Amino acid sequence: MSERWWAPWGEPIAAYAILIRLMADGRISGAEFEVLFGQHYQDDTTDWPIEVLDVLEQVYFDLQDFRGGRPARGQAKGLDEVELRSRAVAAFERLAAAGSIGSVLGETGSVVVGG
Fold first, then answer.
1. Does residue 95 register a pLDDT over 70?
2. Would the pTM of this model clear 0.90, i.e. be above it?
3. Is residue 60 part of a domain?
4. HSE, side-chain direction, 13 A CA sphere, residue 52
5. Residue 24: helix, strand or coil by DSSP?
6. Residues 6 or more apart from 52 whose CB is under 8 A from it?
7. What's the CATH number where 40 sits?
8. pLDDT tens for residues 54-74?
9. Hey, which end of the chain has fewer CB within 10 Å, N or C?
10. Alpha-carbon gap, residue 38 to 42, rounded angstroms
């Protein structure tokens, strides 16, 4: 893996890609991912292409189900760290595929196709 594998993705999406990759690779814990990704997602006002938004929303929903060592509430068991990591791997693959169709954000913050 090259040191700057995220460089072609553009800055706005690269932040998410890096966080998801760190979780997928086991370099951060589920609890750390929950805080970092969750805060970034909640503060983000970007108008993402649907292919990207679908991935980011699913990760956010997965974090809502993550129990991070906390006892499960009610009947829903919730995700443990292993399952969250597995879903991060799938999310990274989906995000990479979305990036490969050319949807990246330019410097103006507007969607640039092919770019």
1. yes
2. no
3. yes
4. 23
5. helix
6. 13, 95, 98, 99, 103
7. 1.20.120.650
8. 999 999 999 999 987 565 555
9. N
10. 6
